[in-house]
Amino acid sequence: MTSPQSGKAPARIGFWRRLVGLAAPHAGPRRAVGRRAWSGLRTLLAELAEGKGGESLARERVARLIGHYTALDTPERRRFFTLLEADFEVEEARVMASIEAYRGADGPARVRSRASLLQSLESPRLRILSQFKLVPEGVHALVSMRADLLKLAPEGAFAGLDQDFLRVFSAWFDIGFLELKRIGWSSPAALLEKLIRYEAVHEIKSWSDLRNRLDSDRRCYAFFHPRMPDEPLIFVEVALVRSLADNVQALLDEQAPTLDPATATTAIFYSISNAQAGLRGVSMGECLIKRVVQLLMQEFPRLRQFATLSPLPGFGAWLDARLADGAESQKWPAALAAQLAGGAMRSPAEALRHLMRQIIDGDRPEDPALKAWLTRECAAYLLREKKRAEPLDPVARFHFSNGASLGRINWLADPSRHGVQQSFGLMVNYLYTLREIDANHRAFAETGRLAAAPEISKLIDGVARPARPA
């Protein structure tokens, strides 16, 4: 629309056109950013940190910054993060002066000096990042920017910048701002494609596989943010069944008959996927599970049991190292010792995986001694192995911290090649018993106690703790 008097776009429309144009993804080949452009970029960052000029000017600055960043190639993005980390840090002199002022103040002046001290602890880059919410695509742009940071930065690098990202996201992605939605086969195709792309636990191999996971006896729920309405943040896949699941391939079998969901007594959470790499470290999974449990109980009042069928992503590597050290080799099952005695296997871990494949393929009968030994090792891994006083296994850490208990270790629950490589085919059920969740969560947070079924806890009485390096 144009003004009939001047033939020019009104100022407001012109501004928004500039805003959209500046924030649009960069098309075509990227060109190296010259010295003058870097100087201009630093000036732009300084203006955003200073915050003068009102909200409209801040919007235009943020849009310009997004446009600048989008045009950078990988080395230039690393340089951009270095600039933010080094030049927009907390001002130490100002912090020390604020501390001294607070110590020497009394009465109302002490209240004012405390506010000044808190403000001095906020880095200029935190003020920059916080203003991204002023433009329509700013939240998504900042999430994508942190994904780049995590990909480009060695562990521990850009620690201050990453902390500021997390401070911003912890406020923006508070559970009160998120919307829980069910995703079904009738959902938009673009959203279904994202489910396929973001699924991180059990690969969705085809559209028919996806349709099976969204059938009437299945549920899929995701959290969305109002400023990222087309992007799932985290999603969970649920199977409605009549007993505790112990095999993931049976659970995902497209040929299995569809159960009348009204007759289901058990809800199995078999996949939880974080869809946005830039939100790593932002806690949403705990609330997602609790909200989904509430919805399922309302829809299916016959449900009595809520559990997971979970992978063991660190068990294979842990047991590989334990076998390589010869830990308790006198207790290794006879079948494993026989494989090694044959001399064809390069390592105990290779021999063990070979045994598991033979059993899965039907070339060898199941071995009760092997099963009992491997189950004990798994129990020891889950309940004893710690990292900074928390379970070493990341999936176990997540569920224990949410108030779940370790209910069962399942033999040959994932017989795929990936499952054998990752965890020798084992998977576990974590139980979300409603009357115990809060008590389990408190015990974990306060004392580190891990809730487990008695029959699992008893298993580790016969497993020695691995020796620690001096």
UniProtKB/TrEMBL annotation:
This is Malonyl-CoA decarboxylase. Pfam families: MCD (PF05292), MCD_N (PF17408). Residues 88-173 form the Malonyl-CoA decarboxylase N-terminal domain. One of its GO terms (biological process) is fatty acid biosynthetic process. Residues 176-432 form the Malonyl-CoA decarboxylase C-terminal domain. It comes from Zoogloea dura. GO terms for molecular function: malonyl-CoA decarboxylase activity. PANTHER family: MALONYL-COA DECARBOXYLASE, MITOCHONDRIAL, PTHR28641. InterPro entries: Malonyl_CoA_deC, Malonyl_CoA_deC_C, Malonyl_CoA_deC_C_sf, MCD_N, MCD_N_sf.
